[in-house]
Design a protein that fits this description.
Layout lengths: L2 E7 L12 E7 L7 E11 L27 E8 L9 E4 L6 E5 L4 E2 L16 H13 L7 E4 L7 H10 L3 E6 L2 H9 L3 E4 L5 H11 L4 E6 L4 H7 L2 E9 L19 H5 L3 E4 L9 H13 L7 E5 L4 H7 L8 E5 L2
Parallel strand pairs: 8-9, 8-11, 9-10, 11-12, 12-13, 14-15
Antiparallel strand pairs: 1-2, 3-4, 3-6, 3-15, 4-5, 5-7
Length: about 325
Amino acid sequence: MAATRFFVLREFPKGLPQLDLFVLREATLPDLAPNEVRIRNRWLSVDPYMRGRMSGVTTYVEPYALDEPMSGGAVGEVIASRHPHFQHGDRVRHMAGWRDVAQLPGDEVEPLPQFGVPEQAYLGVLGMPGMTAWTGLNLVAGLQPGQRVLVSAAAGAVGSLAVQLAKAANCHVVGVAGSQAKCDWLESMGVKALNYRGKDVDALTRSLREASPEGYDIYYENVGGPLLEAALSNLRDHARIAICGMIDRYNDTGPAGGPGNLNQLLFRKARMEGFIVAEHWDHYQTFLQQIAPEVEREAIHYRETIVEGLERMPEAFLKLFSGDNDGKMLVRLP
């Protein structure tokens, strides 16, 4: 009989989750039903949005249920199939992560695209994070050549592609990151980089102004908090803010105060819009055809932080909130 190991939550966390909230369990899998596939996962995606699913509250996605297998993006190999479109050995992507062996209907599985890139790239630069960067800039913010673009969490899985796409459009690009090493990497790609560590709103406001005295046409928002307030004070007329995340608030235990200068949206005739990439997934093939060849020929740079072994999945997840990852966080399974 086939077995699977998977993580469950034993209770919903308050504030930053603790490791003991994640419990690794094992179960025997049933025989395959018609149209099901069984997949040995090779790569598990670790993403900030998963924190919202640990709240017990429905947001734009259903929360994790206590004592039930957790889920997330994964890439793996089909090891058994009763679905006509999948055969043993096929490499696929699906959403049954946080486990080593997945069994699910074939219509919830997709074959990996056939580009000459490492398979885990379809969880990062050519997966949801990359698609998020492309969507926010192009479909939400309406990026135009020569504009002035600010990106927060600019060395992360989303932000690092966003700055490169803006640079490719001949924009003046400023990226904000949380360490000097991350800023050095951004600078190596021609991005003006700012380290936000230890800076309050006033200091951030001054730093953003020095980096782009004329202000910003686009702010790609991943963080929220003081950085959002500083960005609002540096907008140009008719600026656009595309919000894909606010990691600064994901572990808050109470209501968080909003920026004290939202009136800047009025003064600058600006627009601030949140978006969820899943609602734009019908554009994924366009994104892939534009970006995958650039990744294939190494014209686009990306970084990965790889943690080995299913047992370390919770540890990898918590590293997202301490800034201990470069680029996309992944767990590799044997």
